[in-house]
Backbone:
């Protein structure tokens, strides 16, 4: 898709596989039951997407920010699965990831202060150099948080997954 602008559009039951975006924009669009696989982008921008019951595979969401660093590419996620996705140098402060699956994905240098990951399946998802102050991981499972590089003051974790936080400190429990 070259030079296309999609504003306030609905995409329902769509499949986007190995799509290349060049100088394209998606603003305030809704995706329902869509699959987004292997998206590549150059000079494109995505803002305020609402994703519901979607599968997103292998997408570097950082590249979708475009020139606007003030708005997130994603406005909301509901019952979605994101696998092998990258979030880098982004601001998701206060974002509600609750109830979604983020599998084998990575968050690096992301602002996640006061974000919510309640009951998320985060199998193999890593957090490195992130601001997780007052983030809520209640009922979340499978996450790997680098406690030496992430800011964690006031963050909430639940047992038994919270025990994994000790492993990065070299602490073993018996």
Residues:
């Amino acid at each position: 898709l070259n030079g296309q602008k999609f504003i306030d559009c609905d995409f329902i039951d769509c499949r986007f596989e190995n799509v290349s975006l060049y100088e394209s924009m998606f603003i305030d669009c809704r995706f329902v039951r869509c699959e987004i696989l292997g998206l590549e982008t150059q000079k494109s921008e995505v803002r305020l997407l609402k994703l519901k019951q979607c599968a997103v595979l292998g997408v570097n969401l950082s590249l979708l920010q475009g020139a606007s660093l003030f708005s997130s590419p994603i406005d909301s996620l509901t019952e979605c699965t994101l696998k092998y996705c990258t979030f880098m140098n982004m601001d998701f402060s206060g974002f509600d990831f609750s109830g979604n699956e983020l599998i084998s994905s990575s968050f690096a240098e992301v602002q996640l202060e006061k974000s919510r990951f309640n009951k998320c399946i985060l199998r193999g998802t890593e957090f490195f150099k992130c601001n997780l102050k007052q983030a809520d991981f209640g009922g979340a499972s499978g996450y790997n948080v680098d406690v030496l590089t992430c800011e964690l003051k006031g963050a909430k974790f639940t047992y038994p997954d919270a025990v994994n936080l000790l492993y990065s400190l070299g602490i073993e429990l018996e």
